[in-house]
Structure prediction request, 429 residues.
Amino acid sequence: MKKMLIHGGKKLSGSVVIGGAKNSTVALIPAAILSRTPVTLDSVPQIQDVYNLMDILEAMNVHSTFEDCVLHIDPTQIKEVPLPEGKIKSLRASYYFMGALLGRFGSANVALPGGDDIGPRPIDQHIKGFEALGATVTNEHGAMVLHAPKEGLHGARIYLDMVSVGATINIILAAVTAKGQTILENAAKEPEIIDLATYLNNMGATIRGAGTDVIRIEGTPELHAQNTHTIIPDRIEAGTYLSMAAAMGDGVNVKNIISEHLDSFLAKLEEMGVVMDVGEDSIFVYPSGDLRMVQIKTMPYPGFATDLQQPITPLMLKAQGEGIIVDTLYPKRVRHVPELIRMGADITVENDVIILHHADKLQGTEVAATEIRGGACLMIAGLMAEGDTTITHVGHILRGYDRVIQKLHGLGADVEIIDDVDADEPMNV
Ligand SMILES: CC(=O)N[C@H]1[C@@H](OP(=O)(O)OP(=O)(O)OC[C@H]2O[C@@H](n3ccc(=O)[nH]c3=O)[C@H](O)[C@@H]2O)O[C@H](CO)[C@@H](O)[C@@H]1O
Ligand SMILES: C=C(OP(=O)(O)O)C(=O)O
Prediction:
């Protein structure tokens, strides 16, 4: 089992460059199989989710190569095969192969996805969308089996019961080659959805309205990638480094940022009293003075992202007063709380509400990264703490944070990954 060892207490300075968005990348890679020509992606983050998706592609005879943030995918010799457990279970976004295979072959057999344990993550809206397009969907021994009718999928009007990133993307992937028009209402508006639409439109698709809550798709029989697609910067990685910089920085420049994607997060930092210079594509964070406590409620984009509630928590521990965090998307996303308590934080969970108070100092100890953003939270807490912090199950962090050790070293952090061959590997890593 890999662990992260942090010698805490060192001030951070210098600059860090944000990679391509994980949540775009993990949709763009499955979407590549819709193209009849080879696909090239640029600004691809070096994260375990990408390597796992490449293995899944290989199982379909889709060869890919990944070097210097450029990923080449050749789907021209693709074979339709069932995608069983194993790699599919290693990440959440493997469910995008349901929509992509349905769009490409009119059928799919994909094991139920895995991913982080952040509370219940149903896929009823994905299924509702596929069915509206004419597909039959059955669960056969833990695998989702999907079939389009003989005449192929048809466009439909679909209203999502709740705003879902995954369902919006999966329905786009299936509808993009269906006959006729699909109108998706109450769609998610995340920037990663606009990125996907741009990528597919450049292959010949007609998707309008991405980034609003009504997306209109005119089906196109075949897609052909022609240009390299550069993935948007990762707003969650950016938010993580901004929070880290405000908590432990002595002047840190976070580069490759689209600041508009972080509006709600930046507003919260400002409310806390964090001083920043927001440039065209970078944000400089000044050393923090006294910070004010805030209340946070996570919401779908453009609201405060659930994926940033944990990374901002250690910063809040530096502020005076009582802070409150309510995660409306994933109320059970609180497994970092007992770990923070073990580091000396004054933080509790009552009826799914996280309540926290100022901590004069945190103390290094061994803690577990139970999921990706919980891991990021502990990483920042470890950098702030006195003494050594060991984070176990660090695979959760590495699956989604691009070259994290290299980036932390660039900021002057004293951190390393160690291999503990004797340790057990529970918690789905
Ligand atoms: C790979 C990826 O992009 N992951 C992101 C994506 O996950 P993911 O796409 O899985 O999250 P969704 O946007 O679908 O989930 C939003 C809410 O809707 C619920 N829901 C969703 C689908 C469904 O069929 N039924 C249902 O009830 C979920 O339980 C959750 O409460 O968006 C989440 C919310 O911003 C982020 O935390 C994840 O980082
Ligand atoms: C929950 C997350 O990812 P996933 O949907 O891939 O599990 C995340 O990125 O915070």
